[in-house]
Amino acid sequence: MRRVLVAGNWKMHKTPSEARVWFAELRRLLPPLQSEAAVLPAFPILPAAKEVLAETQVGYGAQDVSAHKEGAYTGEVSARMLADLGCRYAIVGHSERRRYHGETDALVAEKAKRLLEEGITPILCVGEPLEVRERGEAVPYTLRQLLGSLEGVEPNAPERLVIAYEPVWAIGTGKNATPEDAEAMHQEIRKALAERYGEAFASRVRVLYGGSVNPKNFADLLSMPNVDGGLVGGASLELESFLALLRIAG
Ligand SMILES: O=C[C@H](O)COP(=O)(O)O
């Protein structure tokens, strides 16, 4: 019922020329997919994604978006620009944005609204830092972040919202959450979504896990009933490991 999504967050890696070669190779080697694949490169790479991936099964999208619709906002990129480039998804609220750019839940919610206005699905990231987990407060912390970041966000269909649980301590560290810990948090997230949007809606929203996902641990994570895919950083950069993740997802 929920189609598995494997989304590669390239962060600030690859140039447009490097990406173009990578996309062409992906296109050539792509197996038939039951699951859904997406790549989320840096803004300057999106035109290459549009050119090379547009007619394929692979979706693409951005890593961020402006909270403003249009205007004198130097350096910002609007949801309308992303829609024009054919973006299906955009990440909002990644912990690196929250941490290095001081993004608040309220700002993340505004960004998610701008995306929905343009028919782009937000991949909304939440997750606790290590000290919060060690204090035993991971669940309330993550749910507070989730509900704060969804304030006023009204997707018109459950497919129009994707949540990514990314514990900060697991990102880029090689230490993924155990499948059981991920599942426990995903259940809590789905419960909170049910209270926010109703049971039927919540049961169809995809909740991805992110944080040191790789071809060795992905099958176990995916075997959990509430883990609907992965938001993958490092392991999405090499074509071989991205393809391995897609084969595991089926
Ligand atoms: O958005 C992706 C995450 O930050 C995970 O990154 P990682 O797979 O390199 O740990």
From TrEMBL:
Supply the enzyme class, top level. Answer: isomerase
Q: Which CDD domains match?
A: TIM
- Domain of life here? Bacteria
Q: In which pathway does it act?
A: Carbohydrate degradation; glycolysis; D-glyceraldehyde 3-phosphate from glycerone phosphate: step 1/1; Carbohydrate biosynthesis; gluconeogenesis
Q: Name one GO biological process term.
A: gluconeogenesis
Q: EC number(s) per UniProt?
A: 5.3.1.1
Q: Where in the cell is it found?
A: Cytoplasm
One Pfam family cited in the UniProt record for this chain? TIM
Instruction: Read off the InterPro entries from this record.
Output: Aldolase_TIM, TIM_sf, TrioseP_Isoase_bac/euk, Triosephosphate_isomerase, Triosephosphate_isomerase_AS
Active-site positions on this chain: 94 (electrophile), 166 (proton acceptor)
Q: Record keywords: rRNA-binding included?
A: no
Q: A single GO molecular function, which one?
A: triose-phosphate isomerase activity
Q: Does the keyword Repeat apply?
A: no
The family database entries (PROSITE patterns) matched by this protein are listed as:
TIM_1 (PS00171), TIM_2 (PS51440)
The catalysed reaction is: D-glyceraldehyde 3-phosphate = dihydroxyacetone phosphate
GO cellular component terms, semicolon-separated: cytosol
Where substrate binds, per the record, is at 9-11, 172, 212, 233-234
Cite the entry's keywords alphabetically: Cytoplasm, Gluconeogenesis, Glycolysis, Isomerase
The entry assigns this protein to a family as follows: Belongs to the triosephosphate isomerase family.
Q: Which NCBIfam families match?
A: tim
The subunit field of the Swiss-Prot or TrEMBL record says: Homodimer.
Task: Write out the function statement from the record.
Answer: Involved in the gluconeogenesis. Catalyzes stereospecifically the conversion of dihydroxyacetone phosphate (DHAP) to D-glyceraldehyde-3-phosphate (G3P).
Record HAMAP family: TIM_B
Q: What is this protein called?
A: Triosephosphate isomerase
Organism source for this protein? Answer: Thermus arciformis
